[in-house]
Amino acid sequence: MQEADWDDLRIFLAVSRGGSLAAAARTLGINHSTVLRRLNKLEQDLGTRLFSRDLGGYAMTPAGELLAEQLGGVGEQIEAVQRQLAGRNAELSGPLRVTTTDTLAYGLLMPILAEFRARHPRIELQVVIHNTFLSLTRREADVALRPVAAPPEHLLGRRVGRMQTAPYAARAYLARMAAESEPSTEAGTEASPSGPAHAHWPDHWWVLPDESLAHLAQARWALANVPASRCAARADSLVAMAQAVRFGMGAGMLLCLLGDADPSLVRLADPDPALDTPLWLLTHPDLRHSARIRAFNDFVADALRASPWVLQD
Fold this sequence. Notes:
The chain is of the alpha/beta class. The chain folds into 3 domains: 83 residues, Winged helix-like DNA-binding domain superfamily/Winged helix DNA-binding domain (Arc Repressor Mutant, subunit A), CATH 1.10.10.10; 92 residues, D-Maltodextrin-Binding Protein, domain 2, CATH 3.40.190.10; 111 residues, 3-Layer(aba) Sandwich (D-Maltodextrin-Binding Protein, domain 2), CATH 3.40.190.10. The protein contains 11 helices and 12 strands.
């Protein structure tokens, strides 16, 4: 018995129950020759005949009956454990650490996470809000949802769409700016509630991203269009920028996800396609076979593709 492995014993039990090689092959989902080869190997390892072959099929020898008795219930127990493990895997359980930006967490991802958690209550979600990349290599996170033009090459990822950006300002701010410029405003050219033309960008005060967000398209746009003297505030968070714009500190180039959702803000111009931000769902290659991570990535990708805030390429 020390030389026998479970695969051989499983085949022995299937032949003993089915009475033939063909019946065992159908039960196990393998071919006839494999059953014969493994059965011959088992008999060779044990040094005894387990079946007598005749025209009626395979009948157990006394040694075969003894082995079947010794194995009594073992096959059923192992199969039951396999079914339980398969069911546990289907349920999906365990911790899953997700990192994303504050913008995506508050404005886009949280309802998706709540729905995923309702479907898979045995998964413990750990959400890490960070506006810079955490190291998936060091397992600081399992999955990252990031707005980035070029994700790190060592990570596995799928591009799930892109997000638009446009200039916004608070209604109260626009009214104040219009009042301040009224003496010099020619008849018929007063600033409208929808905002001034592009030529007037330098006339506004601006809320801008700080150096930590210099990689963003919004930051590059600001360098090209906003004089340094017209900067009212800088922030290291797009959510903080949106709040500063909301409270009238100045205009801001914001994700439409944030700007359109706030009724106190006015979009000053249509989104510029040059400022569109690709959205990536990323994980480490070592985790690609994890059932819960595959399920999470598929679920989130489908939800994001259905979101009105995420445009498809």
